[in-house]
Design a protein that fits this description.
Order of helices and strands: HEEHEHHEHEEEEEEHEHEHEEH
Strand content: 15-25%
CATH class of the largest domain: Alpha Beta
Shape: globular
Number of helices: 9
Number of domains: 2
CATH topology of the largest domain: Fructose-1,6-Bisphosphatase, Chain A, domain 1
Number of strands: 14
CATH architecture of the largest domain: 2-Layer Sandwich
Distance between the termini: 39 Å
Strand order of the largest sheet: 3-4-5-6-7-8-9
CATH superfamily of the largest domain: Fructose-1,6-Bisphosphatase, subunit A, domain 1
Largest sheet: 7 strands, mixed
Structural class: alpha+beta
Helix content: 25-40%
């Protein structure tokens, strides 16, 4: 999937990096609320990736987060027949807009609703995690050096670290989410799925919990990478990950034992 990687890298260089810590007053807008932002970098990068892949991979349909924001009917097409490339042009937009260097770019190639390739790209350091279905998850540096990844082996909850976006839950669920985390070493949020899944696949954290709307542009690539690195991904209740699913709390963990414990502790979020 080199065409996907190259399209993302080119968009990062031309549309994302020049805007970091250089956004003007009119370059940032709210979508649904104060924390759900879109910048000119998001829209320009997505447009560039769409245009690039239209030339290099015309058989694939490219669908991005910002395109779905403009036309929600495109969400269903992400699990449609044939090849789809799903893009999050700037993941962690709130961080990006505030000048915080924890943001990334996510791309996933899907065939007939099944994830075949995932990319978690860091524009600032020009490195990435990529995975092809059936193969290992690899961390690749800008000079081409690559490392096969494996999830953490930590099994003691007191030493476990995890991520959950508490702010995405309804007010009556936020308290339950915070209290459930008290049984672990550290539970927080980076406000960036790209880097949360990168850390998980590299063995630095033991679980990642999604918000109540598990958007495929946030989770499909990360799930594939973590599974390839030896982890587990299922929704609360036990259903396997399905990128077509629009509601449900996804738990991604380093082992079956961790998944079971986290699912039990955070069960109140499923109802």
């Amino acid at each position: 999937m080199d065409v996907v990687l190259q399209a993302v890298r080119a968009a990062a260089k031309a549309a994302v990096l020049p805007r970091f810590r250089s956004l003007g007053a009119g370059d940032v807008a709210q979508k649904t609320d104060f924390a759900d932002l879109v910048t000119v970098a998001d829209t320009e990068a997505e447009a560039m990736i769409v245009a690039s892949l239209a030339q290099s991979w015309p058989e694939a349909r490219v669908l991005g987060e910002e395109g779905v924001a403009a036309d929600p009917s495109l969400r269903a097409a992400m699990a449609g027949s044939g090849w789809q490339v799903i893009v999050d042009p700037v993941d962690g937009t709130w961080n990006f807009a505030k000048g915080i260097a924890t943001f990334g770019m996510i791309a996933v190639a899907v065939q007939d609703g099944v994830t075949r390739y995932g990319l978690l790209y860091d524009p600032l350091l020009d490195d990435w995690i990529e995975v092809t279905a059936g193969g290992p998850a690899r961390f690749v540096q800008s000079d081409g050096r690559a490392q096969v990844l494996a999830v953490s082996r930590v099994s003691d909850p007191a030493q476990m670290c995890g991520f959950i976006p508490v702010g995405l839950f309804a007010p009556d669920r936020k308290r339950a989410a915070v209290l459930a985390g008290l049984g672990y070493g550290r539970v927080t949020s980076l406000r960036c799925s790209c880097h949360e899944y990168r850390l998980m696949a590299q063995g630095h954290v033991e679980f990642v919990i999604s918000g109540p709307e598990p958007h495929p542009w946030d989770h499909a690539a990360g799930v594939l990478a973590v599974q390839a690195a030896g982890g587990v991904a299922r929704f609360l209740g036990g259903a396997e990950y399905d990128l077509a699913r629009r509601a449900g709390v996804l738990v991604v963990a380093n082992s079956e034992a961790t998944w079971s414990r986290v699912a039990r502790d955070y069960a109140a979020l499923a109802g």
